[in-house]
Amino acid sequence: MNHAIVPPRKVSELVVERLSERIACGEWPVGTRIPPEPELVAELGVGRNTVREAVRALEHAGVLEPRRGDGTYVRAADGLDAALVRRARTADAFHVLDVRAILERGAARAAAVRQDPDAITRLDAALAVQTQSRDADEDAFQAADVAFHAEVVRAAGNPLLADLYDGLDHALVRTYPSGIRRRHDRDVPGHEEVVAAIRAGDAAAAERAVTATIDAVRAQLVEAVADEGPGRRDRGAGAGA
Predict the structure, then answer these.
(1) In this predicted structure, what is the pLDDT of residue 239?
(2) Which whole-number Å values give the CA distances from 129 to 132, 137, 154, 233, in the listed order?
(3) What distance in Å separates the CA atoms of residue 95 and residue 87, rounded to the nearest whole number?
(4) Domain containing 107 — which CATH number?
(5) Residue 34 belongs to what H/E stretch?
(6) 131 domain residue, yes or no
(7) In terms of domains, do 71 and 99 share one?
(8) Is residue 38 classed exposed, middle or buried when 0-12, 13-18 and 19+ CB atoms within 10 A define those classes?
(9) What distances in angstroms separate CA 133 from CA 15, 18, 71, 241, one per listed residue?
(10) Full-model pTM
(11) How does DSSP assign 193-205, residue by residue?
(12) Is CB count within 10 Å lower at the N or C end of the chain?
């Protein structure tokens, strides 16, 4: 029997856990600024140096990002998220799109087989918001588009798949190759069709609908890269739609 004494954990490690929990549960979504240091000190009841150490640890992990003169922002949902995004950003844009296609096609097929009523309700809601956002500004459209695709993946009912996709979503959906303007076709085919196929339990049709969406995104990406000239293909990640 192991009778080793486990030393007490550092307070900064506990603060890291507390901050990470807020990020993971969505209280502090990716892209938002966390409360300023004095507020965290008062709220957590710890010293300023302890908060700084915890924040630095999350910065090193790629979860938080300091912006000079503007505070600290959430960069990724967790360490896995940060690692996947870093890797995706160094990959060929079309390779990243291929990964998105594999994940979403499999998820749509699984969701159609699973036929979970609650998941279908959430898909309907996400599709309604995404459809309404086609006349909104770019940020609103992007946010709704990300949420819709993530909901398709979650409808498969596999938490590990959902975590993997969430870790890649802003590389797979939000970002465009560096220097290329975002030119979303807001009527990309497949969105309504994939929800209808999942509701009908038609796995093959759900996969075809996702393929239609990915093919449309690929065509946009080819056109965008061509307009920017040679040498741009290997920069950045996939487009959203």
Answers:
(1) 46
(2) 5, 13, 17, 32
(3) 12
(4) 1.20.120.530
(5) none
(6) yes
(7) no
(8) exposed
(9) 38, 34, 30, 12
(10) 0.66
(11) HHHHHHHHT-HHH
(12) N
